[in-house]
């Protein structure tokens, strides 16, 4: 939200002034910039600025994206503008894109006959109707009609626009006839070559008979319903049917409906007609019956009658999906969708990913599924087979399946899919997932032993999580060599408890899929690696793979895999590195440790001291004693007590936090509660991925030592008032202190200095609490005095005191 130079928009936005007449005169440039860019504008300021009928204030408001992007705010603004004399605002309204599409603005502009309105009405690709174009010309006292003549000449010469060409050419001829001296003589100079044949015939008749009434009657027909219908049935000529409607307002909806009963309009026309907010429901249904998808995509209003309307079978599924995507609960209720929506597969496919949102639909569907299908495997098999081309509604589908259960192989059985993306299922498979998603737990337990691998994948991947799934999957036998437990283990986002339960499968394939889950604990990974370590190096990563962890390195039993992990993880810090060397020594021997010192990767080369320790141990004649000493060093270094001591004594805190320790978070938190650690450590913990939430919340409220001495004073317990009085508000410490709750906006406004800095910091933020504090302060000091407000704004540059002192000084000076 930009502001300029010495401007302090907050003084305008939070002002309690009731009469803005004086401020608008005395600080017009400041206020104009606020009106143009700021989001918080007092209602009284809008009212009084418009009351002055100064175009530049309205231009600023119409340029304000915060105002014009809010339909309600724009409606209020336009209402105030049109309530009075619009003459001063004509040029601004005529040139603003924010009001271009508003019929109420065009109507008032047409009444003025202003040259800017005439020019706007005859701009190429205009949205002004022929009626309004004639109205604005008729309202002009001594009009400059060159825009109208230029527009008419272009229409006659270019043959554009195509779709409305007949009406536009007749209107252009009428413009020359009615508004030039010797109208018939002017028509004689028109080149008939580019004219449409029917227009050329009219021109020829007028010139032969001298009867301009022929031209006027033809124009009225072309600009009326007769001409509109011709265009609505024209599917070949390029053009925008919406313009056909806009240029003929007001529309004869009864005539359009009667025509559509006899013959529906072409597809693009149907889309344009039903997109009109005044389109009657009968006409909408008539056009939906012929062009269901176009109407579903564009109609301004949708209702259950569209679901009930017969339409081409081939187009109905897409139309129904579109209706559901556009208007759940708005014109078409969840109950309507269940009872009236057809075909069932389209309804289920479109609602599959929105079951939680469409509560009424989901509740009705769940009841029907439990009633008709329950845990009857035969009924479930039957409903899956019917989904292929069933034309009826969901109740009809489920009743049919319940009445005709089937045995045998699962319909449309398929192997496990190569991709599990949500977009990978559609049609009958997506519809079946919707049914499974609303089924009771018992139904899942009943059908899972019978499902093919693809359908089991769809169940476990695309349905909402069920706590009973792990037990059900473990109890079910594999189908075609693929176990339900293996399929479930590939669902992203499995939690620790689920992973633990599935690990009981003792199936290496399942364990390898579980290994890569984000929530898996280090202990669980270690246990899996002890069983499947070598296999892990031979498999590709699943899509949800988190990657290697440091603990994998410490537990890896395979040398090749160890080297692979070592290239992917960082081993930083003395104790983490010693622990790594200890694992190598224990697993493959001292010679491999010596080899690592020669082939040392950059990942663990931070501390020379670690290499010296290992080198010294390797030179000992008794390798067993050396190994025992290394074990003792590691055992002592990884304890909670050692980590607490490290946090208390080390001064290279940033480097320490970067080290890859396995922190004892519960013990560290308990110690911090007993006696807080240095604030720099707490602030740096935000960089640690697994930092506990309690540490994280506190870390967000501190600045590091090098980031602000002012903030450090606050953290040591110095009252905010003293810190604000001691240090200028410049720099970046004030806003973090406010966000952390260490300083309130009221305190900053009362004690922070200089006033301009504090007010600019508030102006640069969308902070309700800050504006409320400033508003309360202004209410207590300058109250509603426009003179005091003007003084305060003028005093801001160079004022060395606080905002509160500024406002009190202005109030006293104003009397």
What's the N-to-C terminus distance? Answer: 34 Å
Average pLDDT taken over every residue: 90
What is the 3D form? flat
* Share of helix, binned: 55-70%
Based on secondary structure, the structural category is mainly alpha
Q: If you compute it from the alpha carbons, what radius of gyration comes out, rounded to the nearest whole angstrom?
A: 39 Å
Low-confidence parts, pLDDT < 50 over ≥5 residues? 1-5
Share of residues in strands: under 5%
Count of helical stretches: 56
Largest sheet: none
Number of strands: 0
Highlighted features:
mainly alpha; disordered N terminus
Q: What does the model show?
A:
The chain has 815 residues and is an all-alpha fold. Helices cover 62% and strands 0% of the residues. The chain contains 56 helices and no strands. It starts with 8 loop residues before the first helix and ends with a helix. Residues 1-5 have low confidence and may be disordered.
Write a concise synopsis of the structure shown.
It is built from 56 helices and no strands. With 815 residues, the protein is an all-alpha fold.
Q: Topology, pairings included?
A:
Layout: H1 9-13, H2 21-26, H3 28-37, H4 43-51, H5 55-62, H6 65-68, H7 71-83, H8 90-95, H9 103-112, H10 115-121, H11 130-139, H12 146-158, H13 165-179, H14 183-188, H15 197-209, H16 212-223, H17 225-232, H18 241-246, H19 253-262, H20 267-275, H21 281-290, H22 292-298, H23 304-308, H24 316-326, H25 334-340, H26 344-351, H27 359-372, H28 377-386, H29 394-403, H30 427-437, H31 441-447, H32 453-462, H33 469-475, H34 484-489, H35 496-503, H36 508-515, H37 522-536, H38 550-555, H39 559-566, H40 574-588, H41 590-598, H42 608-618, H43 623-637, H44 640-649, H45 653-658, H46 665-674, H47 679-684, H48 693-699, H49 709-715, H50 720-726, H51 734-739, H52 745-751, H53 755-763, H54 768-780, H55 786-795, H56 803-814
Helix pairs in contact: 3-5, 9-11, 12-13, 13-16, 15-16, 19-21, 20-21, 20-22, 21-22, 22-24, 24-26, 25-27, 26-30, 27-29, 28-29, 30-32, 36-37, 40-41, 40-42, 40-43, 41-42, 53-56, 55-56
């Amino acid at each position: 939200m930009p502001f300029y130079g010495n401007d302090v928009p907050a003084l305008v936005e939070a002002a309690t002034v009731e009469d803005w007449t004086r401020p608008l005169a005395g600080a017009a440039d400041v206020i104009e910039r606020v009106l143009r860019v700021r989001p918080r504008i007092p209602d009284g300021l809008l009212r009084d600025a418009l009351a002055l009928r100064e175009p530049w204030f309205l231009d600023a408001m119409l340029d304000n994206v915060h105002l014009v992007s809010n339909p309600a705010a724009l409606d209020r603004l336009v209402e105030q503008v049109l309530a009075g004399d619009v003459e001063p605002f004509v040029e601004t309204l005529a040139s603003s894109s924010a009001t271009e599409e508003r019929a109420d603005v065009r109507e008032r502009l047409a009444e003025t006959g202003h040259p800017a309105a005439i020019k706007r009405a005859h701009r190429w690709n205009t949205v002004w109707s022929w009626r309004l174009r004639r109205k604005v010309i008729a309202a002009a006292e001594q009009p400059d009609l060159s825009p109208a003549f230029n527009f008419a000449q272009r229409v006659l010469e270019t043959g554009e626009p195509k779709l409305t060409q007949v009406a536009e050419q007749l209107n252009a001829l009428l413009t020359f006839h009615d508004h030039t001296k010797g109208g018939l003589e002017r028509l004689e100079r028109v080149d008939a070559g580019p004219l449409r044949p029917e227009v050329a015939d009219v021109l020829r008749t007028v010139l032969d008979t001298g009867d301009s009434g022929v031209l006027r009657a033809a124009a009225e027909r072309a600009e009326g319903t007769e001409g509109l219908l011709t265009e609505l049935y024209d599917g070949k000529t390029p053009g925008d049917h919406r313009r056909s409607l806009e240029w003929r307002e007001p529309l004869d909806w009864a005539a359009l409906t009667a025509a559509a009963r006899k013959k529906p309009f072409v597809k693009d026309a149907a889309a344009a007609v039903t997109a009109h907010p005044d389109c009657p429901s009968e006409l909408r249904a008539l056009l939906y019956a012929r062009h269901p998808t176009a109407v579903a995509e564009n109609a301004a209003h949708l209702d259950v009658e569209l679901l009930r309307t017969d339409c081409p079978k081939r187009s109905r599924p897409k139309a129904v999906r579109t209706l559901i995507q556009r208007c759940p609960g708005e014109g078409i209720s969840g109950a309507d969708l269940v009872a009236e929506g057809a075909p069932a597969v389209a309804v289920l496919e479109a609602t599959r990913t929105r079951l939680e949102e469409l509560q009424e639909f989901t509740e009705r569907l769940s009841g029907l599924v439990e009633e008709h299908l329950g845990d009857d495997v035969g009924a479930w098999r039957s409903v899956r087979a019917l989904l292929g081309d069933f034309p009826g509604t969901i109740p009809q589908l489920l009743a049919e399946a319940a009445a005709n259960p089937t045995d045998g192989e699962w319909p449309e059985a398929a192997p496990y899919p190569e991709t599990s993306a949500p977009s990978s299922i559609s049609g009958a498979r997506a519809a079946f997932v919707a049914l499974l998603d609303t089924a009771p737990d018992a139904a899942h337990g009943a059908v899972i032993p019978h499902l093919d691998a693809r359908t089991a994948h769809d169940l476990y991947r695309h349905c909402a999580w069920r706590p009973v799934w792990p037990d059900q999957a473990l109890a079910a036998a594999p189908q075609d060599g693929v176990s339900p437990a293996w399929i479930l283990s590939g669902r992203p986002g499995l939690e620790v408890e689920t992973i633990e339960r599935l690990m009981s499968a003792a199936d290496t394939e399942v364990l390898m899929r579980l290994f890569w889950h984000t929530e898996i604990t280090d202990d669980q990974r270690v246990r899996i690696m002890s069983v499947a370590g070598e296999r892990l190096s031979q498999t590709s990563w699943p899509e949800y793979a988190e990657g290697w962890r440091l603990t994998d390195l410490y537990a890896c039993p395979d040398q090749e895999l160890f080297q692979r992990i070592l290239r992917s993880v960082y081993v930083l810090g003395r104790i983490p590195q010693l622990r790594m060397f200890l694992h190598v020594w224990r697993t493959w021997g001292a010679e491999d440790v010596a080899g690592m010192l020669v082939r040392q990767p950059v990942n663990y080369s931070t501390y020379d001291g670690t290499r010296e320790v290992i080198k010294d141990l390797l030179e000992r004649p008794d390798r067993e004693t050396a190994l025992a000493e290394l074990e003792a060093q590691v055992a002592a270094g990884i304890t909670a007590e050692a980590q607490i001591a490290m946090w208390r004594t080390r001064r290279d805190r940033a480097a320490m936090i970067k080290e890859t320790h396995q922190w004892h978070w519960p013990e560290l938190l308990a110690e911090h509660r007993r006696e807080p650690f240095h604030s720099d450590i707490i602030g740096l913990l935000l960089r640690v991925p697994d930092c506990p939430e309690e540490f994280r919340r506190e870390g967000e409220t501190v600045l590091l030592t090098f980031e602000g001495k002012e903030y450090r004073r606050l953290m040591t317990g110095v009252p905010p008032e003293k810190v604000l009085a001691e240090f200028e508000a410049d720099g970046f410490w004030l806003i973090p202190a406010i966000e952390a709750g260490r300083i309130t906006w009221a305190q900053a406004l009362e004690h922070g200095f200089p006033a301009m800095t504090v007010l600019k910091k508030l102006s640069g933020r969308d902070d309700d609490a800050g504006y409320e504090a400033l508003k309360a302060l202004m209410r207590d000091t300058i109250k509603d005095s426009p003179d005091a407000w003007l003084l305060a704004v003028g005093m801001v540059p160079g004022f060395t005191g606080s905002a509160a002192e500024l406002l009190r000084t202005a109030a006293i000076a104003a009397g």
